[in-house]
Structure to design on (285 residues):
């Protein structure tokens, strides 16, 4: 009897030591992961273009999500190992968790899709708060980005909440650089060169008057099927998000320059499906 008690105590002590070691390793793993993710957050915040508040929030969202997933994974592994040391059969537990996970997977697959898509949006920095994008068939300014949804404000002031899994192809009009352009239909009584000269003068004038223009003005002829008169396009490479102000100025000065030359011509702004007034309102919000 005494030998049996001694063997039992020895076995219990061995298992207790193993459990303590497992718990210590689990806590250590969580601390190491936390420190690594903290360094990742600092690296993200040190990247160019991540100084804005929304970029800071994005970096913290990414790192907190990674930390939560890592901690949950470590906790589950530690729990399974502790139950194994206690001689508790974890087979039924795993089977039950598998059934529950399968049921939740079917019920929340759309939610998971949105979250995964949102994570890629955040990690890849596809767009941020303040950018003008076209996503999910909606063109507007980004006002909020979360792990599950993106909020866009369109030119009419309507707020669109788009699940990240439904964004589809995203077109960002305010990243790295943009382009402002106007087109002029050359009237029959005018020469192409005279109109082109007005466009060049206006382009140089706008370039000299603002720091938003990044390159020399470009004047080209535009060929379209079925057009009845020559069309010239004046385009300027601009700082991101400044194309609408520059386009507004181009539109005004081109019309003024043509009037000074006694030329009547149709001047239109080349822009993403907004009218000039709507673009201005969107830029001011």
């Amino acid at each position: 009897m005494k030998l049996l008690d001694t063997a039992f105590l020895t076995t219990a002590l061995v298992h207790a030591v193993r459990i303590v070691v497992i718990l210590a390793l689990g806590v250590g793993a969580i601390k190491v992961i936390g420190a690594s993710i903290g360094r990742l957050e600092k690296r993200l915040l040190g990247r160019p273009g991540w100084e804005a508040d929304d970029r800071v929030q994005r970096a913290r969202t990414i790192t907190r999500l990674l930390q939560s997933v890592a901690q949950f994974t470590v906790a589950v592994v530690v729990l399974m190992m502790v139950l194994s040391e206690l001689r508790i059969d974890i087979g039924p537990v795993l089977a039950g968790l598998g059934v529950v996970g399968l049921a939740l997977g079917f019920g929340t697959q759309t939610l998971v899709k949105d979250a995964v898509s949102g994570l890629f949006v955040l990690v890849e920095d596809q767009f941020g708060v303040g950018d003008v994008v076209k996503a999910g068939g909606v063109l507007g300014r980004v006002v909020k980005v979360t792990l599950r949804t993106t909020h866009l404000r369109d030119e009419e002031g309507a707020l669109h909440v788009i699940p990240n899994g439904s964004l589809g192809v995203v077109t960002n009009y305010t990243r790295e650089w943009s382009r402002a352009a106007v087109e002029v239909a050359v009237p029959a009584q005018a020469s192409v060169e005279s109109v082109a000269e007005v466009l060049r003068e206006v382009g140089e004038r706008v370039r000299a008057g603002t720091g938003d223009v990044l390159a020399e003005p470009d004047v080209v002829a535009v060929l379209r099927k079925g057009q009845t008169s020559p069309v010239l396009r004046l385009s300027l490479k601009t700082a991101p998000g400044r194309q609408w102000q520059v386009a507004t100025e181009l539109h005004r000065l081109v019309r003024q320059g043509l009037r000074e030359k006694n030329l009547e011509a149709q001047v239109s702004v080349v822009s993403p499906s907004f009218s000039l007034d709507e673009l201005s309102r969107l830029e001011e919000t």
About this structure: The beta strands are 132-135, 138-145, 149-153, 159-163, 171-172, 178-185, 218-222, 231-238, 266-270. The two ends are 84 Å apart (CA to CA). The first strand starts at residue 132 and ends at 135. The chain has three domains: 2-107, 126-172, 178-284.
